[in-house]
Specification:
It is found in: Secreted, Extracellular space, Extracellular matrix. With about 375 residues, the chain is of the alpha+beta class. Helix content is about 35%, strand content about 15%. It has 10 helices and 12 strands. Strands 1-3-2 form a 3-stranded mixed sheet. The protein has a 3-stranded antiparallel sheet with strand order 10-12-11, with no helix packed on it. A two-stranded parallel ribbon has the order 4-7. Helix 1 packs across helix 4, helix 5 packs across helix 7 and helix 5 crosses helix 8. It is globular.
Length: about 375
């Protein structure tokens, strides 16, 4: 049985050294951002930045000024690659070649093309950096950002609510309020530490976007995809609350904005990839698209300008690893079905032996001890 494509371990299990080893990639030029860190910073900025030979001069300056933010950005890129493999694991192109062979990420062939998959990866990378940096800001891990400032609500309303709670009185009934306009039945105020999405989006833009104005279709597609990815993270932010009141009654809540579950972000971007718009180039040979990408009906959509290949056969020029040896499901009508994944070549049935836990016993006190029993399964594999 051919081994499955290499996959990334969960981001939470990575040390910084391991992360830097996995994330050997190249990024476009960025602007310096953030205040200079103290010389006695926990992260030795020069040491860390020197381990990233793919940095441009401007990116190196950004890394030296804000090494802790750079570390969060690298975590975000790894998070994006891990999510890409999850979202497309059942498809012919499954993101596995983005993290295999030690190749430089943005030198990968598929990211030099105008496919819908290219737009998806660009948007996911920007979303990953935005998500990781915003989360680190809210956790107080970064010196250059902190809690986001929230707009002030009606101070008289909040004062009357707090006075009523302090006297032990119940609040008068009122209809439920809209977002940001609390009523006594949904009494809350901004508090805690909200994720600073504005700072995170700004850092992601400076880190990933080209500095110069794009003059070709690919750069315009990349910028647009980055913008879509950054905005999805902030649009999916969730309000989380902590209850206050006598006897845990939750008559009053302190709420803050938190970064969304990145699995949800990946699902949204995958859906936008599936419904991406094929845009034609402007006849003036300027690299611009028509209609304009900033138009309202395209602002949230992913766009691409090249039809995707079938990805059935290995082709390094297209970033395709092919589907030979990929496990498939014989009767599935989905993309992971053998009829679709194997591209009409058929499939083989192979016997696979796996070790499973069995004969488990509970020992006082307090652990469970199991044996490993071999289990034989038949697996369908593309020819």
């Amino acid at each position: 049985l051919s081994p499955s494509p290499p996959s990334l371990p969960p981001p939470s299990s990575l040390s910084l050294a391991r992360l830097l080893a996995l994330l050997s990639h190249s990024c476009s030029q960025v602007n310096s951002l953030g205040p200079k860190v103290l010389a006695e910073s926990v992260l030795n900025s020069n040491a860390m930045c020197m381990t990233l030979p793919w940095l441009t001069r401007r990116q190196f300056g950004l890394c030296v000024r804000s090494p802790e933010v750079m570390a969060s950005a690298l975590q975000g890129i790894h998070l994006a690659l891990h999510e890409c493999q999850h979202q497309l694991q059942e498809r012919r192109w499954d993101c596995s070649d983005l993290s295999s062979g030690g190749t430089v990420l943005l030198n990968n062939a598929i990211l030099k093309r105008g496919f819908r998959e290219s737009a998806f990866v660009f948007s996911l990378l920007a979303a990953g950096v935005t998500h990781a940096v915003a989360t680190a800001c809210s956790l107080g891990e970064l010196q250059s950002c902190g809690c986001a400032r929230q707009g002030t609500e009606n101070q008289k309303l909040k004062l009357s609510q707090l006075q009523s709670l302090s006297r032990g009185k119940s609040l008068p009934p009122m209809p439920s309020s809209l977002w940001g306009q609390p009523s006594p039945q949904d009494t809350w105020e901004w508090g805690g530490c909200s994720a600073d999405f504005a700072y995170a989006q700004r850092f992601a833009r400076h880190f990933l976007d080209p500095r110069r104005k794009p003059r070709d279709a690919h750069a315009r597609m990349q910028l647009h995809s980055h913008r879509v990815g950054r905005k999805v993270v902030s649009e999916l932010s969730k309000r989380r609350c902590k209850c206050h009141g006598p006897s845990g009654s939750c008559q009053f809540r302190t709420c803050w904005l938190a970064a969304p579950d990145f699995r949800h972000v990946g699902s949204i971007l995958r859906d936008r990839m599936d419904h991406a718009t094929l845009s034609r180039l402007d006849n003036r040979n300027s690299g611009a698209f028509w209609p304009r990408l900033h138009s309202s009906h395209l602002a949230k959509q992913l766009i691409f300008y090249e039809s995707s290949p079938d990805f059935c056969e290995p082709d390094p020029s297209l970033g395709s690893s092919g589907t030979h040896g990929r496990p498939c499901i014989k009767s599935s009508p989905q993309p992971d079905g053998c009829s679709s994944l194997c591209c009409g070549r058929g499939h083989n049935m192979l016997q696979e032996v796996r070790a499973q836990r069995c004969q488990c016993r509970f020992h006082w006190c307090c652990h469970v001890q199991c044996e490993e029993c071999p289990s034989t399964e038949w697996v369908s594999v593309c020819k």
